[in-house]
Design brief:
With 109 residues, the chain is mostly helical. The protein contains 3 helices and 2 strands, in the order ββααα. It has a two-stranded antiparallel ribbon. The longest helix has 16 residues.
Amino acid sequence: MIHRDLSANNVLLDKNGNAKITDFGLSKLKVNSKIDTNEAGGTGFYVAPEVLNKHKYDEKSDVYSWGVLSWEILTRKIPWQSQGFSVVQVLFRVGLSSCLGPLFSLQRC
């Protein structure tokens, strides 16, 4: 299963401090090696580049989201937001990061 919307809003703590992942509304059951979809979904700062670029993706997109969430837990700051970037700016930069070549010339994705 690929969650596809792993973010701080979708992780709850019980009375013992154990984390529980919630909100499986965007999740997909992984049947093949990659999810064959053009759907981009998720929560702004946590979305992996391959999802934003509408490429086929697998559970590694959740690992990216987990990395962003881990950063937030360790620093108590949402990555990029503390530098003043808006969600749209982050989505643009993360989504185009695989398309930016030397000197930031746009290449075809």
